[in-house]
Amino acid sequence: RIRSKVKANMADTDSEVSKFSAIVEKQEAEVAALRHQLTQIKRDQENNSQLEKLYSENAKLKYQANQLKRSLAEEQSRKPAHMLNVQRQLVDVFSLAIHTAFPSLAQPPVMVTLSTQEKFGDYQCNSAMSIGQLLKAQGKKAAPREIAQAIVSNLPQNSIIEKVEIAGPGFINIHINKSFVSSILSTVLREGVKPPPVERKLKVVIDYSSPNIAKQMHVGHLRSTIIGDSFSRLMKFVGHDVLGLNHVGDWGTQFGMLIAHLQDKFPDYVSVSPPIGDLQAFYKESKVRFDNDDEFKKRAYSCVVKLQSRQPDIIKAWNLICDVSRNEFQKVYERLDIQDLLERGESFYQDRMVEVVKELEAKGLLKEEEGRKVLFTDASSVPLTIVKSDGGYTYDTSDMAAIRQRLEEEHGDWLIYVVDSGQGLHFQCIFAAAQMAGWYDTKRKRVDHTPFGVVLGEDKKKFKTRSGETVRLSDLLDEGLKRSLEKLKEKERDKELNPEELEAAQKAVAYGCIKYADLSHSRTNDYVFSFDRMLDDRGNTAAYLLYAYTRIRSIARLASIDETTLQKATQTTEVSLDHAKEWKLSKCLVRFPEIIAKILEDLYMHTLCEFMYELATTFTEFYDACYCVEKDRKTGEVIKVNMGRLLLCEATASILATCFSILGITPVNRM
């Protein structure tokens, strides 16, 4: 009986275990199913997250595309406050096409360049190969020609492009619409030559010229003065607010030396200053005494202390010396038509140097080294000396005070230092130190040192007089006037021009040739100064360009077409673009905004000179092939005037005149 009970209990237990096992298995299956569902949900969430990210990126791209469309439409419809930049317009058009064709690329390259040969169209888009590399990185394969075709297929409707062709491995050759070019030139004729648009108006501070007080300006000041003035004119042309600063050397030990020497040699030094020539001679004498006479050196240092403490007699003598020098500088500036250059010498920054030292110390940037206070930067292993061991300041200190003043007090957005190449490392250190001090951020402010090379004589050595002296700038300008008059008389222009016209032509050629010879070379290169070469009216010289300009201006005059008649014609007559040479000249003319935009990026003015020479030679090709005014061969009477071509002449003259203005050269209508 007991055994049968045990067996019955065991059977019941097995039954219960089976039930529980079945329940557990069912629950485990449900758990597994739930886990699977959970995993699927997580995957779906991840996919949704990626999808949302793609939606977001796509929305951004659509926004960018719409912005491009809107800006393109606005640019093409707005009243011409600016001259349309054809290349920039093409970049916008192709940028929109590329964004549409390849939405997965956030910032695809858009490369539109001028075609190197006529058979390749007017411009080329060379983005296909680079886009191919980006797609490959995303695991997508596409041949460059397929990419080019996709770009072409997505080009938006526009008035710029006549047609496009796909060539080679994926180059897109672009042919410009003639009516688009004609409309640009018609606007130039009606509204005048306008600058290309800039993103925003900037406060531009330009440091240039910078002669030394008590010394005459010499050939070493020529390049900084001419290059800096052309920068100033360029920035004003595009609409920036420009402050030109003349950082003259008007402070320091040399003035203690000079005043101490004048006390011995020129007793009236407090009431009158010697003329500039004598001042320079006195300066040289004082330097010899300073180097060889310890007693004189003590007196010189005593005068420096008196100058710094603003003792009345010493300050009066110093002011007289500065005034005489300033008057001499102004004579040179007037001859070269240098305008709006504010003198702000080293003396201006004396009090500010004290503040600079305090700030740099408070920020922990100065280190003690052999009694000096120095500032190390990443630009050089040699530090800036901010305070000398005797407590005095240095050029490093005054340049730090100057950059701080220009950034913080003048609120400069763009600082340009037009100083020779030898100062390159110094300015790298100054700029690095200013950033360390927190005075500017390169993302918000632009600071450039624009170095330049040396003026050489025809012997390829530094330009000197025969006696080995530095050439005075006034003597150089006098020689230019003499040579240009000889050249004009050689061409018998004195028989054609009245005395006033001859003098105007003489100055235009002399000063224009000196400026153009400098600006037509890459500023970082040395160049050989040669009057014979710069006065040659063949080749890329101001003489050639000035004669070309005069010739263009004479065409309408010889046809008895006055300015009023030309202006009326701009309202009723289209510029003629049917002949191949007309078309070539027109395409050259509308590149003017591209040239200006490029110079604003790299600050190389020779690019403008090269454009002017290309424009003048292209005009000659046009003029030789296309008559503008037809005359009776026997009587010389005007039979027919092609007004469309005459307007093309006028547009050429207007753009050349604007280029001359930017370079600081004054052309004349008769020469």
| Portion in strands | 5-15%
Summarize the amount of helix as a percent range: 55-70%
- Which whole number gives the mean pLDDT? 90
- Counting DSSP E segments of at least 2 residues, the number of strands comes to 16
Label the structural class: alpha/beta
Write down the Rg.
36 Å
Q: Strands of the largest sheet, in order across it?
A: 7-6-5-11-12
Separation of the first and last Cα atoms = 145 Å
Residue windows where pLDDT falls under 50 for at least 5 positions: 5-10
Largest pleated sheet: 5 strands, parallel
Oligomer: single chain
Principal-axes shape call: flat
What is the count of DSSP helices, taking H or I runs of 4+ residues?
A: 22
Q: Overview of this structure, please?
A:
The N and C termini lie far apart (145 Å). Residues 5-10 have low confidence and may be disordered. The protein has 22 helices and 16 strands. The chain has 671 residues and is α/β, with parallel strands linked by helices. The strands form five sheets. The protein has a five-stranded parallel β-sheet, with helices on both faces. Strands 1-2-4-3 form a four-stranded antiparallel β-sheet. Helix 8 (276-292) packs across helix 9 (294-308) and helix 21 (606-625) packs antiparallel against helix 22. A hairpin with a 2-residue loop joins strand 9 and strand 10. The chain is flat, with a radius of gyration of 36 Å. The longest helix has 76 residues, at 2-77.
